[in-house]
Design a protein that fits this description.
192 residues; alpha+beta; tt1808, chain A; six-stranded mixed sheet; three-stranded mixed sheet; 5 helices; 22% helix; globular
Length: 192
């Protein structure tokens, strides 16, 4: 990611700018960063998970959001757009614009060559400061592989590495078992 020319933009300036923009931008430490487009596989995977969440959460107090729902992390000041997120119980939003979530329970990121290092590193470090976040799911576009991070009672994170189209994994926060075959339906694996 590279910063746009605006320097030392306040959070209020960013929100005003972003709400009037046709493209999405992340914000951190006074800088805004343009978000790039997504590949075919990325879109298929996100759509598949969105459909699975929709069916499962239909009668639930939880809500799921696609990549247009911004998430704010107060501890680091980051404003970002996860590929998918889930919030439960009393959903907390930044203001009366209803476009910035404060308390996701689960965040999903579909990895790409340009975002993988950031999604695994600095972005995950920022996400971990959210007290509400219980699960972080990283999804490969190049193979049937999901890395599922789960917050433990001691505030440490455990990792389950799920491999192969025949595999399944559970999202305990919402009591949902996902089959990788469903997550990767219609995906053509591309190797970098």
């Amino acid at each position: 990611m590279s910063a746009l020319p605006q320097k030392n933009m306040t959070e209020a300036d960013y929100l005003e700018f972003e709400r009037g923009s046709d493209t999405r931008h992340e914000y951190l430490s006074g800088q805004i960063y343009a978000m790039s487009g997504a590949s075919r596989n990325h879109n298929i995977i996100s759509s598949n998970i969105n459909g699975l969440l929709y069916n499962h959460l239909d009668e639930s107090p939880c809500e799921h959001y696609q990549s247009d729902m911004r998430v704010h992390i107060p501890a680091t000041g980051l404003y970002t757009y996860p590929d998918l997120s889930v919030a439960c119980a009393e959903i907390q939003l930044l203001d009366d614009k209803f476009d910035t979530l404060l308390n996701p329970v689960i965040i999903f990121e579909v990895l790409s060559a340009t975002t993988e290092k950031y999604d695994r590193g600095e972005k995950f470090q920022s996400y971990r400061t959210l007290p509400s976040l219980q699960e972080y799911v990283l999804i490969s576009q190049n193979q049937a592989r999901i890395e599922h991070y789960l917050r433990q009672k001691d505030n440490k994170w455990s990792l389950t590495d799920v491999l192969g189209l025949n595999a399944t994994f559970e999202l305990p926060s919402i009591k949902l078992v996902l089959a990788l075959d469903d997550v990767y339906r219609k995906v053509s694996f591309i190797f970098p």
